[in-house]
DNA sequence: TTTTTTTCCTGACAGC
DNA sequence: TGCTGTCAGGAAAAAA
């Protein structure tokens, strides 16, 4: 499930493979991912620049922007020709002859095309997306104000992309573990220092993951094309029943807001 | 207005 | 072996 680090890795890798190529032809086998109308807007457009906002991939073309969300399992592959593999739903023939293929087992990913605007954040796709975790204009007081006015648990607030964009279920658990905060803690009970810690560790953990993704991806590129998968050092997520790396207490799994949530009851204090 | 629930989709896995 | 049921997950839409 790609979160900001995986999305960045995919983007960086794709940039090196398709920059300045144009789209000559598109084949779509599962229409909900890319509408006919949007498909037509992409023909003859060149991939000019690449950017990321939260978990969204942004491709700046000549006249339009293509915005892609991989959701859980979306992947891009650069292949030599079209193929009819079961889970490949969109294929784009590029000017260099290669085919950019979009693979998505659960068909949850989406692609949207918009007319260009000066400020990327004003694109309709980002109407409900807050500042990216690494946005320099984002500071902990902004998080404090958002959290302070809410009764929702901090785990849920971290996953709310309208407050801060880029964090998914895995990293949310890891961030709260580092901050020693019980994921059930209500937003309004968090202190300014808690928010400061959350922003610090969010950036620390995601930056580390991006670095790992960037190094591991190279070994996959030749055979598999482009994926955002890499080994990640997880301290609590999916560690149910295993000892906490800090205190040895057994890691527990509960459900918060329909999301599997892992944490250490001893290290992480409830507020 | 804010929060919760449902929906989308399929592979993996548990239990019979 | 083969069948049925449950679960996971991001975000939009619907419901509360």
Strand order of the largest sheet: 1-6-7-5
Portion of residues in helices? 25-40%
Gyration radius, in Å: 20 Å
Distance between the termini: 29 Å
Total DSSP E strands: 12
Strand content: 15-25%
User: Looking at the chains present, what oligomeric state does this protein adopt?
Assistant: single chain
* Coarse morphology: elongated
Task: Give average pLDDT, whole number.
Answer: 89
Strand/helix succession:
HEHEEEEEEEEHHEHHEE
Outline:
The protein has 271 residues and is an alpha+beta fold. It contains 6 helices and 12 strands.
Overview of this structure, please?
- The protein is of the alpha+beta class and 271 residues long.
- The protein contains six helices and twelve strands.
- The chain has helices spanning 4-18, 36-42, 140-148, 154-159, 169-178, 192-224, and strands at residues 23-28, 49-53, 56-60, 64-69, 75-79, 88-94, 99-103, 110-115, 131-132, 164-165, 252-256, 259-263.
- Strands 1-6-7-5 form a four-stranded antiparallel beta sheet, covered by helices on one side.
- Strand 6 and strand 7 form a beta hairpin.
- Helix 3 crosses helix 6 (192-224).
- It is elongated.
- The two termini are 29 Å apart.
- The structure holds a DNA duplex (16 and 16 nucleotides).
């Amino acid at each position: 499930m790609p979160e900001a680090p995986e999305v960045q890795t995919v983007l960086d890798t794709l940039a090196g493979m398709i920059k300045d190529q144009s789209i000559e032809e598109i084949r779509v086998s599962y229409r909900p991912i890319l509408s006919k109308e949007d498909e037509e807007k992409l023909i003859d457009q060149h991939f000019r620049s690449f950017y990321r906002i939260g978990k969204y991939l942004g491709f700046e073309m000549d006249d339009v922007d293509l915005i892609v969300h991989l959701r859980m399992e979306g992947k891009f592959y650069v292949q030599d020709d079209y193929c009819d593999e079961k889970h490949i739903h969109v294929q784009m023939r590029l000017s260099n002859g290669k085919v950019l293929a979009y693979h998505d087992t659960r068909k949850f990913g989406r692609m949207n095309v918009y007319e260009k605007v000066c400020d990327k954040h004003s694109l309709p796709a980002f109407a409900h997306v807050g500042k990216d975790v690494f946005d320099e204009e984002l500071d902990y007081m902004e998080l404090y104000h958002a959290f302070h006015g809410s009764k929702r648990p901090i785990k849920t607030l971290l996953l709310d992309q309208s407050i801060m964009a880029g964090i998914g279920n895995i990293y949310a658990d890891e961030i709260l573990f580092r901050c020693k905060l019980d994921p059930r803690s209500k937003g309004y009970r968090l202190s300014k220092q808690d928010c400061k810690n959350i922003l610090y560790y969010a950036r620390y953990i995601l930056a580390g993951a991006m670095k790992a993704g960037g190094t591991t991806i190279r070994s996959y590129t030749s055979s598999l094309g482009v994926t955002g998968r890499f080994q990640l050092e997880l301290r609590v997520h999916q560690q149910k029943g295993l000892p906490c790396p800090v205190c040895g207490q057994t890691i527990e799994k509960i459900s918060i807001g329909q999301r599997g949530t892992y944490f250490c009851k001893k290290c992480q204090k409830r507020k």
